[in-house]
Please model this.
Amino acid sequence: MKRLLSLSWKSFTRSSYFQMNLAIRILIILGFIYFGGIALFFGVTSFYIIKKALDVEDPLMIVNSFLIYWFLADLLIRFFLQQLPVLNIKPFLILPFKRSKIIRYLLSRTGVSFFNIFPLLFFVPFSIVLLVEGYAILGTLTWFLSMFCLIFMNNFINFLINKTNGYFYGILAITGTFALLEIYEIFKITNIADVFFSSFYDQPYFVIVPMALLFISYKLVYNYVRKHFYVDGAIAKKEEKISKRDFNWLDRFGKMGFFLKNDLKLITRNVRPRQVVLMSFLFLFYGLIFYTQDIYRDMQGFIAFASIFVTGGFLLSFGQYVPAWDSEYYKLMMSQNISYKKYLESKWSLMTTACFLSFILSAPYIYFGWEIFSMIAAGASFNIGLNSFITLYGGALNRQPMKLNEKAKAFSNTQAFSPTQLIITIPKLIGPIILFYIPYKFFNYEAGIITLAASGVIGLLLKNQFLNFIEKTYQKGKYKTIAAFDEKQ
Amino acid sequence: MITIDNISKEYNTVEVLRIDELNIPEGQSFGLVGNNGAGKTTLFSLFLDLIQPTRGQITSQGIVVSESEEWKPFTSAFIDESFLIGYLTAEEYFYFIGELRGRSKAQVDELLSGFKDFFHGEILNQKKYLRDMSKGNQKKVGIVGAFIGDPKVVILDEPFANLDPTTQIRLKQLLKKITEERQATILVSSHDLMHVTEVCERIVVLESGKQVKDIKTSEATLKELENYFADRANQEDQYDKTEEAKKED
Model:
C-alpha cells in the first residue's frame, strides 16, 4: 500500500500540474477556495436562511425533503465531470501486488475527489449548526453519517454508470419528471424523501440503511473491477463503435463544407468537445435568467451581456480552444497542403455558422419583446463580426494541448486553459457592453443597438485584414505552438 | 532538389544539429542513419518547418521552407502519430488528405487499390477509428497517407519500425518502385541498416548532430555501416573501461 501511495504521489507531483506556471496554479487554488468557501458559507448559514425565509420551525425538514434533488443532481454532475482515476493499470498487472489490494487502493483513491469533499464542506458545518441549535446529538450524528455514506455511494454508483450515456439521460429524465410533478403539485416526491431522510435523524438506528447501501455499492464496484481487471477489461480504454454519421452531405458546400464536416466529426466523436458543445447549447437559455427578472429589465448593461451569450455560447466555449482542438495532430495540419490562412478561415466559418444557427434558434426570445430581441440580433452581429476574430486571435496565445477523448476534470484540469485566455475574455464580454452602453447613455436605446450591430458589420467588412493579422500572429508563434502541443501530457 | 545550407539547431545553446552543406537531387532515395539523439528527427522536422532553425536554411525546389508555405503542395510526410487524426477511420483520413491535396474520392480510391497488398486487409472497411488501431496499422495508414496526391518530396521517419515482416518487405518494394520511376524524392530514416541499404541510393550517417558519412549505396555499404556502428560500440566500451580503471585508481 505504501509503495502504491508513493507511486501516485510521484505521478501527482511530476504531473504537468506542478510544472504549470504559477498563475494557473493560483487560479485553480482560487477556484477551489471560491467553491469551497461557498459550500462552507451555505453550510453555516443555510439553516438560518431557511428558517427566516420560509418561517419554519424545523429547517432540517426542508433540507431533508430537497436532499433527493441534491443527490440526483450530484450524480448528474459527477457523471458529467468526475474523472475516474483508473486509467493506467497495465504496469501494475505484472507487478507483485495482490489484485485485491490494487483494486482497494484504486477505489479508495476515487474517494479523494473534489466531488466528495465539496458536499462534506457543506454537511459538516451544517451538522455543527444543528448541534448548536439544540438538535439531538445522536440523531444529528447518525444523520450526518448517513449523508456521508450517501455521498460516497454516489461516488461508487458513478463508477458503475459512467460508461453508459443511457444512465445519464435516465437520471436526467427522472429528475425532470419529479421536478415537473412537484411544480404542478401533482405528486410531491419531496414528501416521501422527507420521510426517508428524516428517519436518519428520528430513528438513529436507521443509519444502517445508508451504510448498507454504501457497502453494497462498494462491493458491486469491487466485483465489477475485479472481474474486468485485465488489460482489455473494464479499466482499459474502450474501443468504440464508429459513428455512422459521416456528414458527407456537407461536401456539397465545397471547401468550407469539407472543413465543417471534419469539425463536426471532431465534435461528435470526442468526449471533450461534446462536453463543450453541450455547455454552449445551455448558453442559449442564458437569457432566461436575465430577461425574466424585473431587476435586470432596467439594467440594460446586463441585458447586453446576456444577449452576447445567447448567440455566442458556441463561439465562446468552442472558439477559445482553437487551435488546441487540433493539437493531437497539429504537425499534420502544419505540414499538409493547407495554408495557415485557409485553416484559420475554416475555424472562423465554423464559429460564425454556429452563431448564426444560435441566432435562428433564439427566435423564441421574441416573446420577451422586440426590444430584447433586437439586442440579441445586435449581439449576434457583434459575435459574428468581431467576437469571432477576437476569439481566434486569443487562440494564438493559447498553447495548452488538449486530449480530445478525455473528460475535462474539474479543478485538476488545466488542459487548454491559460491566463491569457482570461485576459482575452475581457474585450469579448466587456467590449459589447461598452459599445452598447455609451451611445445608449448619450442618445437612446436604438443608438446603442445600432452601434453594437454596426460594429459587427464593420468587422465583417474588414474580415480579410483581420484574418491576415491573425495569421501573422499565428505564424509568429507557430514553432512554439507546435513544440507545446508536442509535449505529452 | 533539396539544399541544406549551413543549418544548425540549438536548444538552450546546446547544438543538436549542424550540417554545413547537403544537396539531395530530385528523385533520389535518401537514407538517414544514426543512433538515438543523432538528430534525424530534428533534421526532418526542419524540412517540414516544424521547428525553427537557429541558423541557416533549407531550400526545397527553390523555396526556402522557413519563409514561404509554397513547399506544402508538393511535400508530404509521416513522422509520428501526430500526423494521424485519431477520430477518423482510415478511409476518412485518406479522403481528408486527398481533399487537402485536391484529389477526388475516386482518385484516392484508385490510389488505395494499389496498396491492397500493403494493407493486408487490415486497414480498409475496419469500422475502427485510427486511435483504436494497433501501432503497426496506424503506421501503415500514415505511410500510405503520405503518398496521396503525388507529392514530389516524401519524408518518412522510421517507416519500418512497428511493421510486421511482410509489410516491411512490401514497403521496400514500394519505395524501390517509386525511386525507379523517379516519381518523388524520398527521405527515409531507419535504425535497421539492412532496410536502408536495400532501399536507399544514398545514405548519410549522423552522429551527435553532425554528418559523419555520406555513402553512395553499393554492395559494400551494409558491411561498412555495420563496421562503423560496431566500432562505435567498441569505443564506448573502451571508454567505460578506462573510466572504471580511473575510478579504481
